[in-house]
Design a protein that fits this description.
2 copies of one chain form a homodimer. By secondary structure, chain A is α+β, with helices and mostly antiparallel strands. The first copy, chain A, is about 45% helix and about 20% strand. Chain A binds a DNA duplex (25 and 25 nucleotides) through helix 3 and helix 5.
Chain lengths: ~150, ~150
Amino acid sequence: MNKKNTLDFPKLMDRFEQVCKTRGLRLTHQRTEIFRALIRSMNHPTTEFVFNQVRKHLKTISLDTVYRTIATFEEFGLIKRVHLLDNTTRFDTNLAVHHHLVCTKCKRIEDFYWPDFDQIKLPKTISHWNKIEVRNVVINGLCSNCNKKK
Amino acid sequence: MNKKNTLDFPKLMDRFEQVCKTRGLRLTHQRTEIFRALIRSMNHPTTEFVFNQVRKHLKTISLDTVYRTIATFEEFGLIKRVHLLDNTTRFDTNLAVHHHLVCTKCKRIEDFYWPDFDQIKLPKTISHWNKIEVRNVVINGLCSNCNKKK
DNA sequence: CTATGTGCAAAGTCTTTGCTCCATC
DNA sequence: GATGGAGCAAAGACTTTGCACATAG
């Protein structure tokens, strides 16, 4: 479960087709192209971005299909929605446990891994909360590009 | 800098008036009421919620004034915008370093403090990022209410 | 008195929905 | 062939903006 896996496109496409097959989702041209666009756009794409990517190959795609399809993918656990910036919905195809860096200047989002954090105990003060599913860290700072420029 | 402070309304109102005075912001009735509504609504209110609260005391308040005023407050560092749930913009008046619990069922947001986390070193893998300003943890789970019900 | 801030209305975004036709299984 | 999915258009939700009047300093 590391970054390499997220770049193994054929494997991800296989998994996608498997999920569709086993869960009764029809394997349409549109879904395939949308999923492909999602996994190829590393930088946590917006719906609009995915739409534009898909349109390059599928001229007749409509924006609402992208919305609907992405919602379906989310529901079936193929992607995740992330809320990191001012209300631009973005998606994450990296399903491994990871965290996010957000550049305060260019708004770039980068994934990072932090096993040490993943293992530390939560504070006692929140023991009244149960079934902790996800614990994510968001870090705001300057990415290397923006830091150079400055 | 702890939870108690965030509940000290008079002190917070004083600070608000100070900031307005020193930074040349006119102290209008609307701004005062909006700020009051913000600090009194503990649960990370939405713009709509603030609007409704203020309207109880100020019948003529308009929604766009709330939007504009909140943007001003944010700009002047009086509140912070949080992105934790499906694109409902919410605000945080707790300016102390803290983290968030988000209930996966009722969507409630709760603050928590985690000094141990605040002090641990970031992984070496992200040393190419600079000027880390904020490091926040978001934890998803079941709040005590929802856990009881289930 | 002056310039900032508010209210109103209108326009922008972004997202969802109803319906008909199409394509996958 | 049957049914789930796509495309179209329209409506909804949320947010921003231009302008004229009001009000804090």
